[in-house]
Amino acid sequence: MNKRTATISRKTKETDIKCTLNLDGSGTGNIQTGIGFFDHMLESFARHGLFDLEMKVKGDLVVDCHHTIEDTGIVLGEAIKQAAGSKKGIRRFGSCILPMDETLVMCALDLSNRPYLAFDDVFTTDRVGYMDTEMIREFFYAISYSAAMNLHVKVLTPGNNHHMAEAMFKAFAKALDEAMCYDPRITDVLSTKGSL
Predict the structure, then answer these.
(1) Percent with pLDDT over 90 in the chain
(2) pLDDT tens digits, one per residue of 54-72
């Protein structure tokens, strides 16, 4: 089995990002984005997906959090795509219905090489900590397009905004872990076309 890791760097006038991802890790996260709640979400993603993730981000937070969060999604999506490699032998599809206290969130994804995001935005506050809640959709949009995945995130039972956001990140992690798992019955790429 090949080592499924990637290191991606991206530097613009707005952000300077370095990301290292190991899909077959143990759930360790070393995250520094300058946005405390976003760090917490990415740490939850790493822990619950059992990915090792190192993310160092310097962004123009004096403007707002938009560039930092969107560009982090772009870089993480590129790392996911690169680390996945040929996708030979993996399940390709993953889903999770995840409870967090009163909140219930569903995430389903397909590593199809066809980007698409369906996102259920039900936030009732503008911010959680120093993270704009509208940026959660932008983060998942950036990941879906740079990783070329079909991604659906839906809140089945709304509630506390912190809980909804955290359940989204955890459900995404669990669904991605499932999709990346090898299945011995799959000897090639899981597609009738023979490629993704």
Answers:
(1) 94
(2) 999 999 999 999 999 999 9
Alpha-helical segments (H) within the chain: 36-49, 66-84, 134-146, 161-180
Whether residue 1 has pLDDT greater than 80:
no
How does DSSP assign 119-150, residue by residue?
A: E-----SSEETTEETHHHHHHHHHHHHHTT-E
pTM for the full model?
0.96
% of the chain surpassing 70 pLDDT: 99
Q: How far apart are CA 142 and CA 153, in angstroms?
A: 14
Q: In terms of DSSP bridges, do strands 29-32 and 5-11 run parallel, antiparallel, or are they unpaired?
A: unpaired
CA 66 → CA 72, 77, 118, 126, 132, distances in Å? 10, 17, 20, 13, 8
Q: What are phi and psi of 162, to 5 degrees?
A: -60, -45
Sign of CA dihedral 138, 140, 145, 150: negative
pLDDT at res. 143? 98
Which residues face 150 on adjacent strands?
110, 116
Give burial (CB, 10 Å; 0-12/13-18/19+) of 145.
Answer: middle
